[in-house]
């Protein structure tokens, strides 16, 4: 009987101990599940062309932003595809022309400015050495790609400021920059507006064709810009969801983006190899143009005066191009 009582007591103690251990383990399992739930995948995108150059280091070696955080980047073919991804909320980080970023913000998409990643890269190219100013284009036909795009707005703006907008014919019949570059190289077009890297490509392929008017210098002549700064043509935007829920992660990402841009500028040949690897542009075209692509990183708040000067010009020409108004202060991530 005594042994039976001892056995019963031992059995009860064992059950109690097992229950205690199980209860103690539950928070551990719960913590693991919670940690898994809090893992974060940040999805970013750039599109083909010089606007994607500065991000190639991020594509090759995604930044470490913290425990449980991963970054996935993709290269999209066009800005229009990027608009679709942003409108559907499929990406957290995107690269856009400045006016398109403002337009999307004004439309309520919830994407805010993280920083300027590129200044102006536009040139008027010609073999006509008699062109030294916008006024010298009186009576000429100038080709540009994309009616209503940034190059078109700025071309008409500078012609208007010089008083010759009505005297210059603008031809939009060539719809892609590579084709316009070939037309200039082949002598089929005498005056054409092109961005980098195509401006450098044309000058290298056709030594008699050069940049006769630098849009960036024209802008600085009007606005008294600092040396090396001009109008901000390309920006990186981040979703408000990411900025509001993980602001420090967003800041670490922007620091990594800045470091990537600095690396690209310092290592154009290595960067060009990555640019080709990720199908952004052939290395042979990218490498000689990188020094001329005005890749920068200017934080959102610091960039606001430059951004607003640029957007005001577009607002005067076509309010719809930026969504009908200047973005409010909420556009600029702090």
UniProtKB/TrEMBL annotation:
Q: Which SUPFAM superfamilies match?
A: Periplasmic binding protein-like II
Under the heading InterPro entries, the entry gives: SsuA/THI5, UCP027386_ABC_sbc_TM0202
Q: Which spans are transmembrane here?
A: none
Quote the protein name from its UniProt record. NMT1/THI5 like domain protein
Which Gene3D superfamilies does UniProt cross-reference here?
Periplasmic binding protein-like II
Domain named SsuA/THI5-like: residues: 67-271
Lineage of the source organism?
Answer: Bacteria, Pseudomonadati, Spirochaetota, Spirochaetia, Spirochaetales
Known Pfam families for this protein? NMT1
């Amino acid at each position: 009987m005594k042994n039976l009582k001892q056995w019963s007591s031992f059995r009860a103690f064992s059950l109690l101990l097992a229950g205690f251990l199980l209860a103690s383990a539950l928070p551990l399992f719960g913590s693991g599940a919670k940690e898994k739930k809090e893992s974060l995948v940040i999805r970013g995108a750039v599109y083909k062309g010089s606007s994607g150059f500065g991000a190639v280091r991020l594509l090759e070696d995604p930044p470490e932003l913290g425990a449980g955080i991963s970054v996935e980047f993709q290269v999209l073919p066009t800005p229009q595809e990027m608009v679709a991804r942003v409108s559907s909320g499929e990406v957290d980080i995107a690269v856009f022309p400045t006016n398109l970023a403002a337009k999307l913000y004004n439309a309520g998409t919830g994407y805010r400015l993280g920083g300027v990643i590129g200044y102006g890269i536009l040139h008027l190219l010609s073999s006509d050495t008699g062109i030294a100013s916008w006024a010298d284009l009186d009576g000429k036909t100038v080709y540009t790609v994309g009616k209503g795009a940034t190059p078109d707005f700025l071309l008409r703006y500078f012609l208007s400021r010089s008083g010759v907008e009505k005297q210059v014919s603008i031809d939009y019949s060539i719809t892609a920059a590579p084709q316009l570059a070939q037309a200039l190289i082949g002598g089929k077009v005498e005056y054409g507006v092109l961005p980098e890297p195509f401006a450098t490509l044309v000058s290298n392929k056709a030594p008699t064709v050069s940049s006769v008017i630098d849009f960036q210098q024209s802008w600085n002549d009007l606005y008294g810009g600092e040396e090396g700064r001009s109008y901000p043509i390309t920006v990186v935007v981040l979703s408000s969801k990411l900025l509001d829920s993980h602001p420090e992660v967003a800041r670490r990402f922007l620091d990594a983006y800045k470091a990537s841009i600095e690396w690209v500028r310092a290592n154009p040949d290595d960067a060009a190899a990555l640019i080709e690897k990720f199908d952004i542009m052939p290395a042979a075209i990218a490498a000689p143009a990188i020094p001329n692509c005005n890749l920068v990183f200017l934080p959102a708040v610091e960039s606001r005066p430059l951004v607003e000067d640029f957007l005001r010009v577009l607002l005067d020409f076509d309010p719809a191009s930026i969504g009908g108004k200047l973005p409010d202060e909420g556009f600029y991530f702090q």
